Amino acid sequence: MTRPFCLTLSLLLTAFHTARADETGQRIEAILSKLTLEEKLGQLRLVDGHAGGGWKPQHMALAQAGVLGGTFNVRGTGPTSEMQRAALSTRHKIPLVFAFDVVHGYRTIFPVPLGEAASWDPDLAERCAAVAAKESRAANVSWTFAPVADIARDPRWGRIVEGSGEDPVLSSAFTAARVHGFQGKDISAPDRMMACLKHFAGSGEAEGGRDYNFADVSLRALRETHFPPFLAGLKAGAGSIMPSFSAIDGVPATSNPWLLQDVLRKEWGFEGIVVSDYDAIGQLVNHRVAPSWDEAGQIALRSGLDVEIWGSCMMQAQGLIDNADDLKLVDNAVRRVLRMKFSLGLFDKPYGDPAREKEAILHPDHLKLAREAAAKSCVLLKNNNQTLPIPPAAKKIAILGALANDKLSQMGSWTGDGHAEDSVTLVEAVRQRLGNNGTVIYTPAGSSSGFSFRKPSDGVDEAKDADYIIVVVGENGDMTGEATSRSSIDLPQQQLDLVQKVSALGKPYAVVLMTGRPLTVGWLAETCPAILLAWHGGTMAGPGIADVLFGDVNPAGKLPVTFPRSVGQIPLTYNSTPTSRPLVEGDKWTSKYTDIKNSPLWPFGHGLSYTSFQISPPLLDKRTIPHDGTVRFKVSVTNQGERDGDEVVQAYIQDDVAFVTRPIKELKAFKRVSVPAGKTVTVDFEIPSKDLGYWMPNGTYRLDPGTFTLMTGSSSAQVRSSSFSLQ
Ligand code: BGC
Fold first, then answer.
1. Residues 579-623: pLDDT tens digits?
2. Where is the Fibronectin type III-like domain (predicted)?
């Protein structure tokens, strides 16, 4: 294409889009001018459907009366069409929007987000989110309450499973990738949906790791640690955001004008929808910042909320909204909701297409991707004497532990529209794999929660003749996610007893850990020859894990979160700040515990492979970098083994001296690369100088000249360094 032509075309396209936008603006104003206050407030309300996806009669009545913006949980072309028909029969014919928590899959369930983040492969997350969007949209769900952008540093908090772990850079990459996957370039496309970043912000700091609890999070911690993934998600174009249940410096996020207006709207320029969490507006009464539900509704509106889910406080505030300022706030919120409905294409295509729904759901390509994701999420925590992969000569394989065949648990915490019967378990996958060439002896050995035994036998007797034993322990799906905080993150005694008995047999065995959070498994780490962390891997967890156990896939996952030795160490992260008296072994008067090491059981970024890699120190192209420049360096990765494999090269920095205490190590960049056996691959990195600054206590960002240590390696604890100066 010649340049002038190119220019003309782009001008024409811009003019076309501006005209469309104006046209949409005019349509919005035309609708708005005809709505009563009750109808306007109705647009700001989303009610919940039945867990199974159907609608509730009282909500159908709201749709018929034209006082409902949409629903969440109602899904599938059948139930959504019924409600949509009612909404479109009202005088203004405004379509409903159907939302749902599509967090790690709609019907095809992918690994839990924390597990997916262990792949350190944001492209994988984008592809999984795109499939989730495709299935959702085919079921007429066009708005997901995902991705979760919360940084979580406390494994007692069950919701740690929903995000991408403890690090802002890793979480930002995954949050942005998921937004791109859900939304694509155009959310009106038949295979895309609108994303929602949640829970804004700092809810991962819930005191004591107890869900919904108070979070004491400093302004600096918000800026440095908790805001970046939200900002990355907004830059990726996320159309909505959900304030958290918790309070920031005493002000609940749902009624926090600093957070929702000063930061979100004014500083970051966000123009999309701010949607409440489930009943969060009503809960302002529980926080004791509002005396009643109607006043809570008014406070939320004034603080910056557009849409309320589940509750009706904003609707109940109708009697209080009698002044021009509040009416203007309502109008602006309705404008945003209508714009969202236009952007999603709901005015043109309000109904789903049953044929497309049937075709999209559980498409073989989706299951293939789910299997790939399950395998890529696995982290090989320990592997003595090449216990894994399972040798081909092992034909009689015993599998112990109820989690190995628990179709529901493997789907994890947010199961979307997933059906347990779609899941392929590890037991089924190993049976399929061995076919007539081997035998699988499976004993559930108790329940998947590990707290009771279903049958008297623990299965160890049955496993005595096996060539190889796989023991699956951990948490079941119900033990992770929302409202599942734990004060102890040990394995239940029954599971430990089981592994102990297997260990006493003296046979080759590997432990598979299925969990939604780090667990304190020091005894396993000391005793078991091989441990594979498989998280809750989704619909295709079984085949994915088997691919790794049998060596078809060489594991390359890395921990997105630190595994502590004991709950007493929590919060324990790799990026802690220096102390006045850093640990000196043998010196009593330094920062340490008297009964346990400071170090974690497994550090952030840890994960082994069936091959071994040598990673070079960073080779900087210049050692003096201008403050508006870029730090450029190369790292070579050599695969020293006989198997092809992927390695995740991690680059950390340390600011040697600053005004505030800076992390001893901060992830700044990473790349997952494939390296054939015996070969060396060179990886190029770039870190813009502006990313080397830090936040001051007063909320300003500062970039200091001075020296930095640059570290590269295969985990936060395995690095080689070099240094540079920033001018
Ligand atoms: C959760 C949100 C979720 C909402 C709707 C709340 O309890 O905190 O993450 O989006 O429910 O299901």
1. 999 999 999 999 999 999 999 999 999 999 999 999 999 999 999
2. 647-716
Provide the domain limits for residue 487.
371-569
Q: Residue 8 above 60 pLDDT?
A: no
User: Out of 69-73, 164-168, 244-248, 535-539, which region has the weakest mean confidence (pLDDT)?
Assistant: 244-248
pLDDT tens track for 189-205: 999 999 999 999 999 99
User: Is 214 within the bounds of a domain?
Assistant: no
**Domain final residue, candidates 508, 538, 569:** 569
Total domains in the fold of the chain? 2
Any domain includes 639:
yes
Q: How far is CA 125 from the centre of its chain?
A: 9
Helix axes of 122-138 and 168-183: crossing angle, nearest 10 degrees: 30
Q: Same structural domain for residues 435 and 499?
A: yes
User: Which residues have any ligand 1 atom within 6 Å of their CB?
Assistant: 72, 101, 145, 198, 277-278, 482
> CA-based Rg of the chain, rounded to a whole angstrom?
26
Peptide bond into 199 cis (omega under 30): yes
pLDDT(17) > 80: no
Residue ID of nearest Cα to ligand 1 atom 6: 278
26 in any annotated domain: no
Task: Check residue 77 and give its pLDDT.
Answer: 97
The CATH code of the domain that includes 713 is 2.60.40.10
245 CA to centre of ligand 1 in angstroms: 10
Query: Residue 512's domain is classified under what CATH number?
Result: 3.40.50.1700
Nearest in space to 326 (alpha carbons), one of 308, 301, 349:
301
Distance in Å, CA 280 to ligand 1 centroid: 10
How is 652-673 classified by DSSP, letter by letter?
Answer: EEEESS-SSPPPS-EEEEEEEE
Residue 137 lies in a domain: no
Note the pTM of the prediction, 2 decimals: 0.96
Provide the annotated active-site residues: 277
